[in-house]
């Protein structure tokens, strides 16, 4: 169940919930807020444009063309703002109470009410559900990029429209809609943006948490190549296979760098923090770890044949 909201400025939002009652509550609250806002605007317009007449010594003085006096305009604006602030405060309080009463995602998942979609799940859960060893969404995105994105300047570096990326995300999560079946197909930057978002939203990164410290400890050691190769061999099968397919794809992108201007260093900076992150981190170590994560992807791409015993 989802709802699309488009603001007066053209900004799009996609709201989603597995509970239809929740969607109905959102719709009712948004409708109330919109109606209230329009009502206040209309009331102010009526006051400002109304005909005001004043009786003086038995004769009538028509003030219909006279603007509101400064004091009257100030009073009207003050009254309107006070009403608006009060109503907004009530609406926010009501929404806050409603959100606090909602059960957490973990509770719904334990009760079997909430089921993870493709985004925000785990690789093992996705592959078990699909009966595959590599998530189909990853496969479809890679196929789309290699079919019509290899010659696109800045592929993976350029950002797609976030509203369209979220729209694709919701479509995939709610109906298993894959990029290859979309008509017309999404913009190629939307597909690359969705693929990066898919990896960032995994409950556990492509390089599992338990391997993070081991990799960080050897990334700058003299024997790092063999140590990292040993760590890769211990990855869960779906993680290992997904990683190999993704790296092979990135090397295909690099092979067209004369057209798309994407080199190993560019892609390493983009995918390093996307494929691996610590379970807990602090701001002081964040910058250093991001550099080291990019170093890892750079190493894997530079010496792919060594790490995976095959040549693309």
Automatic annotation (TrEMBL):
PROSITE patterns: PH_DOMAIN (PS50003), RHOGAP (PS50238). Residues 121-308 form the Rho-GAP domain. The keyword Thylakoid does not apply. The keyword Nucleus does not apply. It holds the Pfam family RhoGAP. It comes from the Eukaryota. Residues 61-83 are annotated as: Disordered. This is Rho-GAP domain-containing protein. The gene is 20213889.
């Amino acid at each position: 169940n989802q709802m699309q909201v488009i603001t007066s400025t053209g900004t799009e939002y996609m709201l989603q919930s597995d509970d239809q009652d929740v969607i109905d509550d959102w719709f009712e609250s948004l409708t109330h807020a919109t109606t209230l806002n329009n009502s206040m605007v209309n009331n102010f317009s009526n006051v400002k444009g109304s005909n005001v007449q004043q009786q003086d010594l038995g004769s009538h003085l028509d003030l219909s063309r006279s603007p509101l006096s400064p004091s009257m305009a100030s009073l009207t604006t003050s009254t309107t703002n006070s009403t608006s602030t009060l109503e907004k405060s009530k609406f926010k309080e009501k929404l806050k109470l409603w959100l606090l009463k909602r059960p957490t995602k973990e509770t719904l998942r334990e009760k079997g009410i909430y089921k993870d979609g493709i985004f925000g799940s785990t690789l093992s859960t996705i592959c078990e559900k699909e009966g595959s060893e590599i998530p189909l969404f990853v496969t479809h995105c890679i196929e789309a990029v290699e079919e019509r994105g290899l010659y696109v300047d800045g592929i993976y570096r350029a950002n797609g429209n976030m509203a369209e990326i979220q729209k694709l995300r919701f479509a995939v999560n709610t109906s298993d809609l894959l990029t290859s079946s979309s008509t017309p197909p999404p913009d190629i930057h939307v597909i690359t943006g969705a693929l990066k978002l898919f990896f960032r939203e995994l409950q556990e990164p492509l390089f599992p948490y338990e391997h993070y410290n081991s990799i960080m400890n050897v990334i700058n050691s003299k024997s790092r190549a063999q140590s990292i190769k040993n760590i890769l061999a211990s990855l869960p099968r779906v993680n290992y296979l997904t990683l190999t397919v993704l790296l092979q794809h990135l090397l295909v992108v690099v092979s067209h760098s004369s057209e798309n201007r994407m080199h190993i260093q560019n892609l390493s900076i983009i995918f390093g923090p996307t494929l691996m992150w610590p379970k807990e981190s602090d701001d002081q170590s964040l910058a250093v770890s991001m550099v080291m994560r990019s170093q890892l992807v750079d190493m894997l791409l530079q010496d792919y044949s060594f790490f995976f015993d095959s040549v693309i």
